[in-house]
Design a protein that fits this description.
The protein has 11 helices and 12 strands. By secondary structure, the protein is α/β, with parallel strands linked by helices. The protein folds into 2 domains: 189 residues, 3-Layer(aba) Sandwich (Isopropylmalate Dehydrogenase); 131 residues, 3-Layer(aba) Sandwich (Isopropylmalate Dehydrogenase), CATH 3.40.718.10. α5 packs across α6, α7 runs parallel beside α8 and α9 runs antiparallel to α10. The longest helix is centred in the middle third of the chain and has 17 residues. Bound molecules: 1,4-dihydronicotinamide adenine dinucleotide (NAI) and magnesium ion (MG). 1,4-dihydronicotinamide adenine dinucleotide (NAI) binds next to loops.
Length: 335
């Protein structure tokens, strides 16, 4: 029986990197029934919206999707497709591992962190209004329910991945009520996990400590905006956005995508680094209980990057997206 997966190519470099990831997943030998679905700026003229209902229905039917980046139309009146995706499918947890790969230029050689970002509220609730001309308020919504499930998710991930420590990242010294609530809930959840150390750290100090010595941390959990910023920082510790995969996870559905955007500056040139989306595909395989195939994909990526002979421009090489992908598929074939 084949596995149904929705594939959303997206905008900019999306079609190039999603084609690469699809080929690598097919090369693992998993029999996949790919359901193509549209979203993004380029489809507005056909559907009247960047996120067509048909696309959401396809994801609901498949349960899991691999998604290319989508350009957020600026000032068009449409809200961010990415934020909308997460809200409509209740993909409450954003799972963002940052792991060093040999051969990839970066400051540290052995980074292995997991950032868990709350994906549905905080400042991304989209609640903004003009109080009086010249004064605007944005509401940062923190709820007990969302805090509880994101912290629980972080501890469950820690257990699944054999991790030792979960750190709640916050600004409760200033945001006494909202982050105070987050911490209160986190402490309560932590009491249920005796096997895992629980710590708390203030977000600005966390940024500095991550840069000085990332090995102080293991799994980090936080609200939406802090997670957005801290996970870009951790991807910078392992070689940049071209290397950073992610999963948007809910109770019913999961959408896997790279952390990077549609990179309009290099779109259509065939030079994008597809590693982030290929590694997102590996996270997806693990989510589908295909851990052995996921391990093989990660090992093939590690082999090609480690050799350094066939890597893309952003990593200092000259390979095209396709040449690099071919090398990964060849390494996969030997494993
Ligand atoms: P970006 O991540 O697209 O690009 C930032 C820089 O990194 C650019 O110089 C780009 O060329 C480079 N880069 C990114 N991915 C790369 C890759 N795979 N290989 C080689 N180089 C790569 O961020 P930017 O320019 O701020 O955003 C462009 C558009 O993407 C915006 O409309 C933004 O809203 C959207 N976006 C979408 C996301 C998603 O769909 N999940 C996430 C982030 C941004
Ligand atoms: Mg971001």
């Amino acid at each position: 029986m084949s596995t149904s997966i929705a594939l959303i190519p997206g905008d900019g470099i999306g079609p190039e990197v999603s084609e690469a990831a699809r080929r690598v997943i097919d090369a693992t030998g998993l029999s996949v029934d790919w359901h193509m679905a549209d979203a993004g700026g380029d489809v507005i003229h056909r559907y009247g919206t960047p996120l067509p209902e048909e696309t959401l229905e396809t994801i609901v039917r498949c349960g899991v999707a691999l998604k290319g980046p989508i350009t957020t139309p600026i000032g068009s009146g449409f809200r961010s497709v990415n934020v909308n995706f997460r809200k409509r499918l209740d993909l409450y947890a954003n799972f963002r591992p940052a792991r060093s790969y040999p051969g990839v230029p970066s400051r540290y050689a052995d980074v292995d962190l997991i950032v868990v970002r709350e994906n549905t509220e905080g400042l991304y609730s989209g609640l903004e209004h003009v109080v009086v001309p010249g004064v605007v308020e944005s509401l940062r919504v923190i709820t007990e329910r969302s805090s509880e499930r994101i912290v629980r998710y972080a501890f469950e991930i820690a257990r699944q991945h054999g991790r030792k420590k979960v750190t709640s990242v916050h600004k409760a010294n200033i945001l006494k009520l909202s982050d105070g609530l987050f911490l209160e809930v986190a402490r309560r959840v932590a009491r249920g996990y005796d096997d895992i150390v629980y710590e708390e750290a203030i977000v600005d100090a966390t940024a500095m400590r991550l840069v000085l010595d990332p090995s102080q941390f293991d799994v980090l959990v936080m609200e939406n905006l802090f997670g957005d910023i801290v996970s870009d920082l951790t991807s910078g510790l392992v070689g940049g956005l071209g290397m950073a995969p992610s999963g948007n996870i809910g109770e019913k559905f999961a959408v896997f995508e790279a952390v990077h955007g549609s990179a309009p500056d290099i779109a259509g040139k065939g030079v994008a680094n597809p590693t982030a989306l290929i590694l997102s595909g590996a996270l997806m395989l693990r989510h589908l209980d295909e851990g052995a195939r996921a391990d093989r994909v990660e090992a093939a990526v590690r082999e090609v990057l480690g050799k350094g002979a066939c890597v893309t421009r952003d990593l200092g090489g000259t390979a095209s997206t396709k040449e690099y992908t071919d090398a990964v598929i060849e390494a996969l074939g030997r494993s």
